[in-house]
Amino acid sequence: MITFYLSLVAVGAAGVVVIREVAAARAKQRAALRPVRVRVTDRGTERQARRR
After folding, report:
1. The pLDDT of residue 47
2. Do 46 and 40 touch, CB atoms closer than 8 A?
3. Structural domain spans, the chain
4. Helix (H, G, I), strand (E, B), or coil: what is residue 36?
5. CB-based contacts of 46: which residues, under 8 Å, 6+ apart?
């Protein structure tokens, strides 16, 4: 009977590991899709161009 419970614990732990791996892969995908801000050297002209 104890082996049954131990096997349930092992299956649950494996499930947690799989879920964490999937979450980490999704986070990497989201980070890759996130737009990167481009640094502008001449900020004054950019602001003026937006206002027009």
Report:
1. 56
2. yes
3. 2-51
4. coil
5. 40
